Amino acid sequence: MRSALASIAALLISVLILLAGSGLQATLVPLAAKGYGFQDVLIGFIGSSYFIGMMIGCFAAPWLIKRTGHIRTFGACTALATGTAVLHALIVEPVTWNLLRCISGICFAVLYAVIESWLNDKSDNANRGTVLATYNVINFGGMAFGQQFLRLYPPAGFQLFSVSALLISLAAIPVALTRSASPMVPESPRLRLLWLIRLSPVGVAGAFTVGLANGAFWTIGPIFATLQGLGPGGAGDFITASILGAVAALWPAGLASDRMDRRYVIVLCSAVAALAGIALALTPSGNPWLLYGFAFLFGAGAMPVYSLSSAHSADYAKPSDMVVVSTGLLLVYTIGAVVGPTAAATLVEFTAPGALFALTATAHAGMAAFAIYRLTRRSPIPPEEREPFVPVPRTSPAVSELDPRVPQPDEEFEILEETDTEAPKGDAAGA
To answer: Which positions ≥6 away from 70 have C-beta within 8 Å?
Structure first.
C-alpha cells in the first residue's frame, strides 16, 4: 500500500498545489469583485459562470486528452488557468470576469480528469479505496491551505491573483517531469438522467441540493463573512471552518449510513445544515467564533450529503452502471451549482447578507422533507445488499474509475446489459 502511494506522490503534490491555487481563487474572486464595487447579482453570475465551465470541461476533457495526450493537456490547461487568474487583475470588468471564470471552470474540469485518470491507472483493485481516500484528504487540505493566503494582501489588487496564478503554474512541474507512461484516455461521459431519477430520486435530489447550496456558499459566503466584520483573512477562516466540518463529519456519516438506511443519515445531515444556516443568518456581526462554529456545523451537515447521495444511488445500481450513476449525479450537482450563486446573490442584493443562508436552509430543509417522504414510499435496501460508503469528490467523471464499487476489466463477474425499462437492484420503485 505504501509503495502504491509512493508511486503517485508527485501527482498528489501537484494536486495539493493546484487545489491551493484553486481554493484561493474561489474565495478571492467574490471578495475582489465586492471590493471593486460589483453588484451582488453580477458576482452571482460570475460564480455561476465557473460551474458552467465545469460542465463544459467534463464533456470536453476526453476529446482533448485523446487529441493531445495527458501531459500536454495538463500543461496547456495549467497555462490557460494561470493566464485567466492574472487577467482578473489586469481587466476589472464584470463581463470579462464571467468569461474568465467560465474558462477557469473548463480548465479545472479537464485538469481533474487528467489527474483522476492517472490516479486510477496507478492504482489497482486492492488499493483504490486508499488512493481515493488520500485524494480526498489532499483535496480538502489544498482548499483549506489556499484560504490562508488571503491574510497576505488585500483582495482588490493584483497580488493575490498573482499568488493564485503562481500556485496553479507550479502544479504543472511534477506532472511535466514525470517519467511514467500516460494512462488510458477516459471515456466520454454517458448520461441517462431519466433512468437515474427513476433509480434514485433521493440521490438526484441530494446532488442538486448540494450543488445549489455549495455553489451559493462558495460564491457569496466570503462576502457574507466580510460584511459580518471578519475581514478577508477571517473570510478565509470562515471557509476553512466549513471544510474542517466536512472532514470531521464525512467518514462518521458514511459509516453510519452503512449500518442503517442512508436516507436517515441524509435527513440528519440536511437538518444540521438547515439549522446551521438559520443560525448563520441570525447571528449578529461582531461574533467571529460563533460564526466559525456555525460554519463548521454547516460544513459538517452540508458537505457529506453528496457522497451519501452517491452511496444511496449505488445501492440500487448494478456495478456495470456505476460510471453512469456517478456521471449523472455530477451533472445534476453542476446544474444546482449554476443556479445557486445567482439565486443567492439576487436575494442578498434585494434583502440582506443573511439571505444567503436563508436560501441554503430552505434547500436543506426541503431535502430533509423529501427524504422523509421517500422513506414512506419504499423500504430500505437490506444491509447485505448495500454497497459500502465511498466519499466521492465532485470533480470530473473520471473519478468514478477510482471508486472501488466500479468494476475493473480484470475483475471476474458477469456484466449484464441493462435498459431503461429494467428494474434496478432492490424492488421496482425508485428509491
So the answer is: 114, 117, 118, 175, 182, 183
pLDDT in tens, 332-383: 999 999 999 999 999 999 999 999 999 999 999 999 999 999 999 888 777 7
Distance CA(265)–CA(309), nearest Å, equals: 10
DSSP letter (8 states) at residue 154: -
Secondary structure (3-state) at 158: coil
The C-alpha atoms of residue 418 and residue 7 are separated, in whole angstroms, by 37
When comparing pLDDT for 85 and 410, which is higher? 85
What is the value of pTM for the model shown? Answer: 0.88
Report the CATH architecture of 1-180. Up-down Bundle (1.20)
Per DSSP, helices labelled H in 122-200 are 128-147, 159-170, 172-176, 193-199
| Per-residue pLDDT at 164 exceeds 70 | yes
The per-residue pLDDT for range 219-233, each reduced to its tens digit, is 999 999 999 999 999
For 183, the grid coordinates are 494512462
CB 200 within 8 A of CB 374: no
Q: How many CA atoms lie within 13 A of 351 on its CB side?
A: 15
pLDDT digits (tens, 9 = 90+) for 97-110: 999 999 999 999 99
Q: How far apart are CA 123 and CA 128, in angstroms?
A: 6
What confidence tens digit (pLDDT) does each residue in 27-44 have? 999 999 999 999 999 999
Mean pLDDT score of the chain, rounded to an integer?
A: 86
Grid cell, residue 231, equals: 475581514
Count Cβ neighbours within 10 Å for each residue of 338-371 and write b for 16 or more, e otherwise.
bbbbbbbbbbbeeeebbbbbbbbbebbbebbebb
**What is the Cα–Cα distance from 241 to 146, expressed in whole angstroms?**
13
Report the C-alpha gap between 397 and 117 in whole angstroms.
10
Domain spans in the chain, listed from the N-terminal domain onward: 1-180, 189-392
Instruction: Judge whether 1-180 and 189-392 match in fold.
Output: yes
Mark out the alpha helices in 70-93 (DSSP H runs).
70-90
Q: Work out whether the CA dihedral 147, 152, 155, 161 comes out positive or negative.
A: negative
**Nearest to residue 340, comparing CAs of 28, 52, 23?**
52
CA distance 209 to 31: 24
Grid cell, residue 172, equals 504543472
Q: Which CATH code, of 1.10.540.10, 1.20.1250.20, 3.40.50.12780, 3.50.50.60, is assigned to 189-392?
A: 1.20.1250.20
Evaluate whether 222 touches 239 at the Cβ level (below 8 Å). Answer: yes
